[in-house]
Amino acid sequence: MRPFDYHRPENLPQALATLRDAGDAALPLAGGTTLYDLMKIGVETPDAVVDIHRLPELDHVGVAGGELVIGAGTRMARAAAHPAVMRDFPAVSQSLWRAASQQLRNMATIGGNLLQRTRCTYFRGGAPFPCNKRDPGSGCAAIGGRDGGHAVLGVSDDCIATYPGDLAVALIAFDAVVDVAGPAGARTVPIAELHRSPGDTPHLEHTLNPGELITRVRVPFSDIARESTFLKVRPRESYAFALASAAVGVLRGFDGEVRECRIALGGVATRPWRATEAERVLAGRPLTAESAREAGDVAMRGARPGRDNAYKVELGARTVAEALLRAAGSER
Ligand SMILES: Cc1cc2nc3c(=O)[nH]c(=O)nc-3n(C[C@H](O)[C@H](O)[C@H](O)COP(=O)(O)OP(=O)(O)OC[C@H]3O[C@@H](n4cnc5c(N)ncnc54)[C@H](O)[C@@H]3O)c2cc1C
Ligand code: SF4
Q: CB of 50 within 8 A of CB of 28?
């Protein structure tokens, strides 16, 4: 492992000043469950890390001004078990419970989860494999290679890596925002604008500027968030990333027709994926196995499968359909 400096600021202003002074050479360190992994295998090579894991300003969960507010340094397990999250945002709570393992959830944070990097084996595999994300312009070993876990939505000719996180999928469905602090002051970024599509710059994964930290996540309370669920399909029931996931919410009128619905997908796309067209397909119609499946098909429209991952097109559609029926309490 390459030597690096370790900074442990006492508070948020100190952390921001240390990051500002270090510029591109430093990375924030939260729980370290992704960052240290990537440093050990030489994929991340910062000159310094700034430890924000114990900053008091970032560790909180609560309710303020009609919103759920979760500090970026809050451990995943604490946020998942908070009564307001479980009662009013079941999809958010479930997305956290179904991520990683209990040990990881006790250590890993909300901010680190949102900005975790892809699990593409070529990205993590190092020098023998060309990878535009790790080494811009070198090519992409996954395209035409072993792509069974890779994305089918939002892919580009330069990168097909799946966004691996669960939480961001639930957050994008319910219009969450992140508050950010940095050298130019504070600003707010909708979750829908936090992650980038790979395009021809797959090494640029998010829209934060150098030296910026996510300080908290805010999610508006709504009836639809209360009627939500998160369904994750994975190779085993624990400790595995999603092959496909869906965060959905459904509100129905007196006649059973869909008044409003939210659909977001994970495991199949290069970034957290909101399926607004699919949401529109259901509006004003009864929710049945057929209409839910139609919404699933629309959600997967535009999918671009490769060698081994065509199964994700069907799996994604089925996952959306099943999640909708579960959210509406009418699963088969
Ligand atoms: C075996 C294994 C299985 C896993 N399974 C799942 C799973 O099923 N679902 C899932 O969602 N995740 C899964 N994960 C990923 C895990 O959830 C992440 O490693 C974790 O959430 C990262 O949080 P952290 O606090 O440890 O972040 P770190 O590793 O400390 O940081 C991750 C990245 O975020 C940046 N960062 C951290 N905090 C901030 C901030 N506040 N502002 C700006 N940048 C920040 C860091 O610089 C770094 O680039 C798994 C991980 C492992 C090792
Ligand atoms: S899919 Fe993306 S991360 Fe994986 S090898 Fe290709 S460029 Fe690298």
A: yes
Q: What is the CATH number of the domain that holds 36?
A: 3.30.43
Confidence of residue 330 (pLDDT cuts 50, 70, 90): low
Cα–Cα distances (Å) from 203 to 118, 139, 177, 200, in that order, read: 11, 12, 23, 9
Residue 165 falls inside a structural domain: no
**Parallel, antiparallel, or unpaired: how do β-strands 228-233 and 244-252 relate?**
antiparallel
Q: Whose CA is nearest to atom 38 of ligand 1?
A: 112
Report which ligand 1 atom has the smallest distance to the Cα of 109: 25
**Which residues have CB under 6 Å of ligand 1?**
27-35, 52, 72, 99-100, 104, 108-109, 111-113, 115-116, 165-167, 213-214, 239, 241
Q: How far, rounded to the nearest angstrom, does the alpha carbon of residue 149 sit from its chain's CA centroid?
A: 16
- Residue-wise pLDDT for 143-156, tens only, equals 999 999 999 999 99
Range of the domain at 269: 231-327
For residues 291 and 328, give the distance between their C-alpha atoms in angstroms, rounded to a whole number: 13
Asked if residue 322 belongs to a domain, the reply is yes
Task: Give the Å distance between the CA of 142 and the centre of ligand 2.
Answer: 6
User: In the predicted model, what is the mean pLDDT of residues 256-280?
Assistant: 97
pLDDT in tens, 45-77: 999 999 999 999 999 999 999 999 999 999 999
**What CATH number does the domain containing 253 carry?**
3.30.390.50
**Is there a contact between 76 and 85 (Cβ–Cβ < 8 Å)?**
no
38 falls within a domain: yes
pLDDT tops 70 at residue 127: yes
Whole-number pLDDT of residue 77 = 98
Residue 130 has pLDDT above 70, yes or no: yes
Assess if residue 264 is contained within a domain.
yes
